[in-house]
Amino acid sequence: MKKVITFGEILLRLSTERHLRFSQAANLNATFGGGEFNVAASLANYGMDTEFITRLPMNDIGKAALREIRKAGVGTNHILYGGERLGIYFLETGASMRGSKVIYDRAHSAMAEIETGSIDWESVFRDAQCFHWSGVTPAISANAAAVCLEAVKAAHHIGLTVSADLNYRSKLWKYGKEPKEIMPGLLKYSHIIVGDLDSAFFMCGKEKEDPDYNDDAILGKLYDTLFQSFPDLKFATTTLRYSISASHQLIGGILYDRNTVYRSIIKEVDPVVDRVGSGDAFMGGLIYGLLHYPDDHQKTIDFASAACCLKHTISGDVNLASLDEINQLASGDSSGKVSR
Amino acid sequence: MKKVITFGEILLRLSTERHLRFSQAANLNATFGGGEFNVAASLANYGMDTEFITRLPMNDIGKAALREIRKAGVGTNHILYGGERLGIYFLETGASMRGSKVIYDRAHSAMAEIETGSIDWESVFRDAQCFHWSGVTPAISANAAAVCLEAVKAAHHIGLTVSADLNYRSKLWKYGKEPKEIMPGLLKYSHIIVGDLDSAFFMCGKEKEDPDYNDDAILGKLYDTLFQSFPDLKFATTTLRYSISASHQLIGGILYDRNTVYRSIIKEVDPVVDRVGSGDAFMGGLIYGLLHYPDDHQKTIDFASAACCLKHTISGDVNLASLDEINQLASGDSSGKVSR
Amino acid sequence: MKKVITFGEILLRLSTERHLRFSQAANLNATFGGGEFNVAASLANYGMDTEFITRLPMNDIGKAALREIRKAGVGTNHILYGGERLGIYFLETGASMRGSKVIYDRAHSAMAEIETGSIDWESVFRDAQCFHWSGVTPAISANAAAVCLEAVKAAHHIGLTVSADLNYRSKLWKYGKEPKEIMPGLLKYSHIIVGDLDSAFFMCGKEKEDPDYNDDAILGKLYDTLFQSFPDLKFATTTLRYSISASHQLIGGILYDRNTVYRSIIKEVDPVVDRVGSGDAFMGGLIYGLLHYPDDHQKTIDFASAACCLKHTISGDVNLASLDEINQLASGDSSGKVSR
Amino acid sequence: MKKVITFGEILLRLSTERHLRFSQAANLNATFGGGEFNVAASLANYGMDTEFITRLPMNDIGKAALREIRKAGVGTNHILYGGERLGIYFLETGASMRGSKVIYDRAHSAMAEIETGSIDWESVFRDAQCFHWSGVTPAISANAAAVCLEAVKAAHHIGLTVSADLNYRSKLWKYGKEPKEIMPGLLKYSHIIVGDLDSAFFMCGKEKEDPDYNDDAILGKLYDTLFQSFPDLKFATTTLRYSISASHQLIGGILYDRNTVYRSIIKEVDPVVDRVGSGDAFMGGLIYGLLHYPDDHQKTIDFASAACCLKHTISGDVNLASLDEINQLASGDSSGKVSR
Amino acid sequence: MKKVITFGEILLRLSTERHLRFSQAANLNATFGGGEFNVAASLANYGMDTEFITRLPMNDIGKAALREIRKAGVGTNHILYGGERLGIYFLETGASMRGSKVIYDRAHSAMAEIETGSIDWESVFRDAQCFHWSGVTPAISANAAAVCLEAVKAAHHIGLTVSADLNYRSKLWKYGKEPKEIMPGLLKYSHIIVGDLDSAFFMCGKEKEDPDYNDDAILGKLYDTLFQSFPDLKFATTTLRYSISASHQLIGGILYDRNTVYRSIIKEVDPVVDRVGSGDAFMGGLIYGLLHYPDDHQKTIDFASAACCLKHTISGDVNLASLDEINQLASGDSSGKVSR
Amino acid sequence: MKKVITFGEILLRLSTERHLRFSQAANLNATFGGGEFNVAASLANYGMDTEFITRLPMNDIGKAALREIRKAGVGTNHILYGGERLGIYFLETGASMRGSKVIYDRAHSAMAEIETGSIDWESVFRDAQCFHWSGVTPAISANAAAVCLEAVKAAHHIGLTVSADLNYRSKLWKYGKEPKEIMPGLLKYSHIIVGDLDSAFFMCGKEKEDPDYNDDAILGKLYDTLFQSFPDLKFATTTLRYSISASHQLIGGILYDRNTVYRSIIKEVDPVVDRVGSGDAFMGGLIYGLLHYPDDHQKTIDFASAACCLKHTISGDVNLASLDEINQLASGDSSGKVSR
Predict the structure, then answer these.
(1) Sign of CA dihedral B286, B291, B292, B296
(2) Mutating which of C11, C13, C14 best tests the F interface, going by the most F Cβ atoms within 10 A?
(3) How far is A329 from chain F (nearest CA, A)?
(4) What is the phi/psi pair of residue A141, to 5°?
């Protein structure tokens, strides 16, 4: 099977342990993550051939990130080097009614200052079948948005399947453009869109909708307006998340293929070990499912939702659940028995 | 707004991590806490001007305590220095049906051996509006009880609002006096009393009552007997706590102002990160509420209860939840969503 | 009261912290445990006189194990020394729908290579009243099975009460024998058998049964077939475990004495701190109960089930719950209140 | 005694433990430090009244820094709030022939973007006797340099003693100005200058000198050229450091008062626990000495050098050695005996 | 070989890691130790039969101490239970010129409040050959001193060899008696005395001496005055310690048998991992040597000195060096090569 | 430049922290290493293309090893999967006169049970220029020795430069063969031999020699006898190590090319952070030097020795020193100054 390429920023993640608040922490766990890397790492963990495109600073922090990408089994052949710093995000893990807290410190990063023309997309896309990007990249800087546009155009032109995770973050988009000025131009070249309708409509400049996600007919109708705006779109999909508390979540997913709304059963995650990256786990599961079960959309959404659930039980940004574990959960066994 | 003064003991808290039993712990987390300090630290965290009065030994353990008081933003200008040791408490954090375990090692502490006349209360209470004490202080030694009496008399005389948390601890009160011999003399000078009716009646030498806390009429009647004993009393209040397990608690609160019983909605805390100090968080919230929403007792009890809930999600004795977080929970949002 | 002797393997247990996956762990918690040792340690913790029989390698890992056995208060006078290595098991602690994972690395251990005739059982059993073994020992090697047979024969001959925990582990039994070829020969000399009917029937070569554990009549009938095979058997007993998730378990137990099925109430454990060794905690509770409450089987099964529940809240293989704590839970108080 | 004011940036310090390289670290120690804060914290630790002026971002990282400043007993009344991020530095602690490594990530910090006119220096300097700044501040941005100039002018005008630590860092000074364009304008208003002659001459645009630091006559002559350039200068001083390895340092100091070169004995530090901040410890000791022993320059340089030595044995940026410990070392006892 | 009995206090030791100062420590290592226990643990580690006599409080801290005594292989059959608290000592480990710091918090401990008549010394000394006590026990309280006197009298009467480590601690001896009022009465019943001449003369009320420890003649003469005071004394011995810094020590030892001064070669310890308990390691080595090499005093002092050296490389109070390791060092190999 | 291939075993390394003894460790650091992997990782760290050949079990421990190999940037394309377990070694890090201690637990590992014919060496050696093996591989089992012979023959046949590190470990070689029966047959196909003469002569069945390593003439003569036995040999080389203590080592190296003995200056490492793998760091440096400075043997031995020195300052098996750091040390700067 050919490669899946993802493009985005990888960040140093500094998180407190044992639900400590930032001001209590005498040390911080240091790992690395970022939406598009997380998707590539999920796919590599399922045994797929992947490549992650980003820009890393040539200091020891950038090199440590590079080592973690390699550890995940993700290809690093086309990574650019340059810039002043690796972006950082601080994470305080909540519990019960206290939500987790993210502080971004990613302005002026190597990736934010990437320049158009610096990546040879034709060479990147050789032997590839899919390209994945997310709404975080055009949100960090005008430069990143411009390079993202180069990428989706090239991918679309070469004939790759392009997937987009909307990933709306209100704390980003600080460089003078609004999502609706940028995102439609990128989504035009995409075939798969992930995100709730609220974000999708907002980022495309449509009026806000707050639909009943249990009503297939209404959902279909709303998604159809997206399909009309972006004729190349083949799939719209989203996780369904009910947040009972920071420690207790109900997770499902839906996949719409212009005809049918496929739904996975809602599952209960309690306790949540780490929910950051669970959307990326869903995305990775979706790409895996569409490629491996092209004719079984139900299986795809079940796989993606199970991957999303299991990610909640794993520390760090990246979903390290195995194919076996995900398939076992997707087929209904959530008993969590000891394997011995 | 003028200062809130609290008076009591701060202890070195040595707690096991990861629910380990004492005999399993190769190391102990070392923090500092104590009921009256915890109240001051809560209020300082809300931006209020506070001062904590205590007695610290002049060794490195006492100095470390002093640094933590300063870190909390609590005033240290009137702290006494002397004595042989800082009191200690050991804490083993339970889980599920295994309760947490506290071992006190606070006898002979600097605070237990405080002497009457050693604090210039007039100077302490300059620019102050409130004074807070709790039933722990008169429980540790005859000396501490005598100084506590000096304090409440002076505070009452100067016209401060005096609040008292009953904080009955059966493992204390070892120096030859029973609560009923001491507490009424202190409560006489207090305006706000916090504690369940069972403790209140016991510590005041009244017959035990086990009322239905859902019945406003009965509650009012019982509280009225307290108000009759202590004519200066304006408010009686308590948390309502249903302990499903060490990890799962239902938390609410009531506030009675001689006329009406105000109740906050019962909220579910699951899992509990650390419940020690949650009563002090309630107390801090109550003082904050009464000062900031003097005409809205419902808002006050909702704020105090939400502060109490959030404390359960925070490690250590002190409530580090922010005003924003407490207000968000008090207004009903307990979804614990990620802030990013 | 005379001694309880247990015989089996103690392993180095290497477990990840904070629910980390193996590939994430920069360090591993190092403790020691093993079914039969865990039973002895439970009993020693209740104040009983015990002795653990095993074979340890004469290297620093074996010596560290010896120190932990001593720390538990278990007798070490008859331990053999020799062999190349201490067996190891790796443990990854799951959460929610992700189950815990055990990787055995115990082949070729000192215990697996124990030789017949190397233990003077007569001397071991002096001053003893009970002997306990489990199905793990005959599962690890032909040698261990042979020595186990020596032991049960000697114990039976001398008149000790012999208890057997079936402990079926499909990842063991790799040396060429199936359980049904070995276990009946050992159970013949046993008086108490612990394990679910499914395992019992499978290990005795009977046809699989999946009975309704709520139906006393059916249970009794099925157990009676065991009693017919093993006429010396006096008690058959098992935990009842409903695994809602890796973090949430429902736990009860039943005890059958050829006449009556005694049941303890099902209790809810949430969250689970560590469920490894909870069966051994049940076993330890059962032996304690049968010896201390010989005429009150209900009390025995309640004690054993409560011990099993509390073990889930304690890290490591060994149940460190005290008699008081177990009795409090057995008598119905699972509120987990703070003791202070 | 009146206050000492220091002005500069405080950074989040993220350091690896146990001499790990950045790429090996699964977690980072998180503390706070920065040259001018370190000086204030030293002085506060000696019991002096101090105030630290800086600009902190209003996020949880900035607030954590604020709490650490308070913990050190340093005044925070004039701190500005605003900007996007707290500066960061990463520290990898070397050993033997492998030097420690600092990676700055402080561009675009709240302090770098401070604006002229935003601090009311007159109010800051009320009740103050000394003002301390260092060459790091003008090195981080044009804005910081401009505010630093405001500060030294105001301090000089009001009549404070102004001290300057040259602190040349080649990895800073990136905003388009060279030290020699900025530093002389700032030194003009200073009375005490700390730094080796090489840095001093370079930063003042003079030709490089590499003098024999053992020759008082030559040293005096070279320092005199500085005194000629800056007529208000009263003292020039520097540590003498011989780096045998990252773990083994020889430390002394000299103080020149336009007449005499005072020298402390060279002391051996082995092993070095943490040498970052040792220059600031020297600076703090110097200010303390000049204020407390105005007529005994030998005592001052001995105190400053001993403070510098002891800092090498203390983890973190800040010197936590007590007056007693420093005086004991300054008077010659470096035996490191156990105090018990 | 018959048992060695030691009598004294075991303390909870709370120490900072990585040379942190007390005020920096977010957690403390929790171990257990105390001079006389350390001696027993050394001997048990060499394979000898030992028993430790002390008084422990019946709380979880006391029980944790008990488990550690058992882990060390030391007998616990005669331990008393009672009292309010286990004594504590805080330890901050120094480096280079910063010495380690001990804070005692042991007043009012279970051991300090031991009562005369509570130990049946005749039963304790059955099957014993040696009894060891130290000057710490009579230093903690009048009660402890009185029980110590009971012990030495009984031991002497029964014919045991009695050894005494002077262990002078100026921070103890707070209950109203001076050493010279108590120690001679205890030393009268002792056969071996360990300690420098300075302490010995001071504690016996003799005039201070500061002899040249390299001059056998002078040493012999001074020791002879001790032998004259205590006619039953057979051996006087001491470590020789030159403290270059907290991290670098020179260690030797001398043993005088009324005729000859035996000396071990001075060895260099660099770095020191933990020097607390190194005197007890010397004491343990001495007892071992005198019992195993009764005719080779040179071998004894070499063994004791090597044990003392190796203790410096081991964390915690107790010497865990093996017989092989000590013998290898005693015979001159200090190269520290990797064993593999 | 073409690839360097190394072949051998990678082990799970479980080491105690802070110089703790095995019996004190509540947790163990878990990393991965092994002589031949360490060489490949060194070379990858210098930017070279490498491939590591081994056999890993298909369990989570084997997979974790695979991830670490990838993280190091070493190629994994030809790794075999199978077998029961990953080999383990336990490491206790000594200090001062206490040496580090290695306990091997590697019998029956996946690598020990590798089978001849299972590796397609022709395919492995495509695009390669060098092949490296060590004496550990033939020491672990007859199978491993046989596969090693296949490898060296194939490498020699294809024309690769073959290097051999003798790596004599007396605790291995347990399967019935002595080194002299196996090693000569392997060395016959090698061009570079690393190891001291003592090991070399012993493993080749020659009489023991203990030469003066400072005498070039004697060294040359002894090495010449090796060159006579193995005519294809071009270089003989060894580290020179003087072990003052476990914490203090003097390190140099010599390289003999049949004509001249090249020597690097002896350097002092104090303190040693971790000396395991320092020989492999030397080996990696040597291969790098011979390939990059083919005409400058002095530069090669200086580079290799500096790499060996720096490894002592780095935790774990693998040398993570950069080319810049090694070159700086090789050119004489061992001052360990802070880089900032």
Answers:
(1) positive
(2) C14
(3) 19
(4) -170, 160
Taking an 8 Å cut-off on Cβ atoms, the answer to whether C100 and A314 are in contact is no
pLDDT of residue C211: 87
Residue of chain D with shortest Cα separation from E24: D315
Phi, psi for A270 (deg, rounded to 5)? -160, 110
Relative to beta strand A55-56, strand A50-53 is unpaired
Under 8 Å between Cβ of A128 and A5 = yes
3-class secondary structure, D194: strand
β-sheet bridge partners, residue A17: none
CA distance F172 to C74: 35
C-alpha dihedral (A133, A138, A142, A146), degrees to nearest 10: 30
d(CA E162, CA E151): 10
The alpha-carbon gap from B79 to the nearest alpha carbon of chain D, in Å, equals 14
DSSP A88-105: EEEEE--BTTB--EEEEE
Of the candidates A9, A246, A36, the residue with the CA atom closest to the CA atom of residue A105: A9
Q: How far apart are CA A314 and CA A305, in angstroms?
A: 15
Q: Provide CB contacts within 8 A for D65, sequence distance 6+.
A: D10, D12, D32, D56, D86
Which chain B residues are closer than 8 Å to E25 by Cβ? 30, 64
Predicted confidence at residue C209, as pLDDT, reads 79
Chain centroid, CA A80 distance in Å: 21
Q: Which residue has the tokens 């991590």?
A: B17
Residue B259 is classified by DSSP as: S
Contacts of B295 (CB under 8 A, 6+ apart): none
Strand extents, DSSP E, A34-191 = 50-53, 55-56, 80-81, 88-92, 101-105, 128-134, 161-165
- Interface residues of chain A, partner chain D, Cβ below 8 Å: 14, 17, 21-23, 25-31, 59-61, 63-64, 67, 84-85, 88, 90, 92, 101, 103, 105, 107-108
E339 and F102 within 8 Å at the Cβ level: the answer is yes
Residue C12: burial class (beta carbons within 10 Å; 0-12, 13-18, 19+): buried
pLDDT tens digit string along B55-72?
Answer: 999 999 999 999 999 999
Q: For chain C, what is the mean pLDDT?
A: 97
Strands (E), chain C: 3-7, 11-15, 27-33, 50-53, 55-56, 80-81, 88-92, 101-105, 128-134, 161-165, 192-194, 235-245, 248-256, 261-263, 267-269
Give the whole-angstrom CA distance, residue B127 versus residue E224: 71
| Other CB atoms within 10 A of residue C11 CB | 24
Nearest residue on chain A to D65, judged by CA atoms?
A23
**Angle at CA B41, nearest 5°, toward D124 and A14?**
80
C-alpha dist (Å) from residue C318 to C247, C284, C312, F26: 19, 10, 10, 15
Enter the ipTM: 0.96
Q: Does B332 score more than 90 pLDDT?
A: yes
**Of D274, D276, D267, D248, nearest to D328 (Cα)?**
D267
Three-state DSSP at E49 gives: coil
pTM: 0.97
Q: Which residue of D has its CA nearest to A63?
A: D23
Cis peptide before A271 (omega within 30 of 0): yes
Tracing tokens 């990530």 back to the chain, one arrives at D105
Which 8-state DSSP code applies to residue E136? T
CB D156 within 8 A of CB D189: yes
Question: Tokens 């200062």 label which residue?
Answer: B3
Tokens 């009225």 correspond to B224
| Closest by CA position to C138, among listed C151, C157, C128, C121 | C151
* pLDDT surpasses 90 at B209: no
Token couple for F326:
């090694």
Contact status, residue B112 vs residue B87, Cβ threshold 8 Å: yes
